[in-house]
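pasting for ref. prot 1 ->
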Amino acid sequence: MINKQNLWFLTLFSLILVLSIYYLTMPEEALQTINTSKSNDTQTIEVEQSDVLTALRVDADEQTTQEMATYQEILLNEEASVEEKNDAYEALKELNQNKGKEETVEQAILDEHKLKSFVKIKEDQVQVVISNKEHDEQLANKIIRTVQNNFDTRMFITVKFQS
């Protein structure tokens, strides 16, 4: 059974891991202030291609943080059964593994195809969003092969081009 010290370590480690991954994946443009320009008494904000990927990452990180908080509540709940706590622990472990795998796949796409991407893994499904103006079927097939090479089992992979 998990004692309190191990539980706190797991909780803090998970939080630090998520925050560090979030910080490392943020582009420098997101860390600086957004450039705005005024025209006709209204503000316009220029959105670059990488900003779309950044928005996707932020949404995914928020969702992951919420899921982790839910699982951590179960782990800290004294009334939860051992089976519920084990399931929550396994789910936390899977979330952390998926996050690492997502980064690995993004780096593989960047290295092999020189494209910025966003990858989201959920069970046996992999969603890939590519920051590219061209919507090429051959490129999509190559990206699917690159992604599948990172997994031992067959995955259902979708590729979406975002311009």
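and prot 2 ->
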Amino acid sequence: MRKSRFTEERIVRILQEYAAGAKVSELCRKHGMSNASLYKWKSRSGGMQVSELRRLKDLEAENAELKRLLADAMLGNAGLKALPARNS
């Protein structure tokens, strides 16, 4: 997965500026990002603190790893089940 240019602290700070009443166009120009990024961050992590946002990212990474491991295990099981069918 691609690493973001913005750290969790910076995202939270930008969202706090937005909540304080700053205009979207000014924020985007000031921080060098798009409107879509701001709204995506707001929908995903609006109102979170830095520690909560880090925990969310860690949990998402762990979940992706567990899904990959499960898919590998299921693929291996399917291969083992197909093996006896070929031998008979």
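The chain has one domain: 8-87.
Residues 8-87 form one domain.
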